[in-house]
Amino acid sequence: MNILLIEDDKTLNQNISEALKSEHYNVLSVYDGALAERILKKDSFDCIIMDVNLPGKNGFDLCKEFRNHNRNTPVLMLTAFGELEDKVQGYHCGADDYLTKPFYMRELLLRIQALIRRNTLTENKKESLTIDDISVNYSSKKVTRQGKEIVLTPREFQILVKLMENGGELVSKTDLIKEIWGSNFDANTNTIEVYINFLRNKIDKPFGKNSIKTRVGYGYYFSEEG
């Protein structure tokens, strides 16, 4: 597995790199956002770890630009900030996960493992899925509604697929988080609500639909009605 590590703090970069290599990952370390942008345009990786505050180009802009030509590779953002607004901005730019400094190296490794595992499982599905007027292609990660393509981040895509595959049955918040992020993720986080809101803004609202529904206190489900 090949990982691109974009972190300008040389000590932290080295510590992360050593931890990843001890788990048998191949790691390319970069310390500058502008250089990372050039690398991302010509090389492919199984996962990307990027800091938000980078010289040359910050992580938000770098991730947003990367998503213009790659929707599949998982991105984990690192930041010194823990505010909700920063997390929302990171997710909106296409990040799959978010880790606030300081963090335990073991937690970082678990997050990376979950990101790669989930992405691999999704890529191995070759069929398409159609419910109501929404069609999902597993291999291309293309989503269309009423014939119009909808651009989703990898996490948004995975959540939509999980809800659609459940055939209208309720998916609890805990089960959804465990399936998408892994069992090490804090189930009390409001991250899932943020993503559900993103999905509704892309999948439902532009089409006057209400397919992604909430059962308060229980979870979410996909409905063909509305």
Write out key terms for the chains shown:
226 residues; alpha/beta; four-stranded antiparallel β-sheet; 8 helices; globular
Structural overview:
This protein has 226 residues and is α/β, with parallel strands linked by helices. Helix content is 42%, strand content 22%. The strands form 3 sheets. Strands 2-1-3-4-5 form a 5-stranded parallel β-sheet, with helices on both faces. A hairpin with a 2-residue loop joins strand 8 and strand 9 (148-150). The protein is globular. The N and C termini lie far apart (43 Å). The mean pLDDT is 86.
The main sheet comes to: 5 strands, parallel
Work out the strand percent: 15-25%
**What is the overall pLDDT average?**
86
Number of helices: 8
Total number of strands: 12
Distance between the termini: 43 Å
The spatial strand order of the largest sheet comes to 2-1-3-4-5
Fraction in helix: 40-55%
Low-confidence sequence ranges? none
* Net shape: globular
User: In terms of structural class, how would the helical and strand content be classed?
Assistant: alpha/beta
Radius of gyration: 17 Å
Order of helical and strand elements: EHEHEHEHEHEEEEHEHHEE
Write the SSE topology.
Layout: E1 2-6, H1 10-22, E2 26-30, H2 33-42, E3 47-51, H3 59-67, E4 75-79, H4 84-92, E5 97-100, H5 105-123, E6 128-131, E7 134-137, E8 142-145, E9 148-150, H6 154-165, E10 171-172, H7 173-181, H8 191-204, E11 212-215, E12 219-222
Parallel strand pairs: 1-2, 1-3, 3-4, 4-5
Antiparallel strand pairs: 6-7, 7-8, 8-9, 10-12, 11-12
Helix pairs in contact: 2-3, 4-8, 6-8
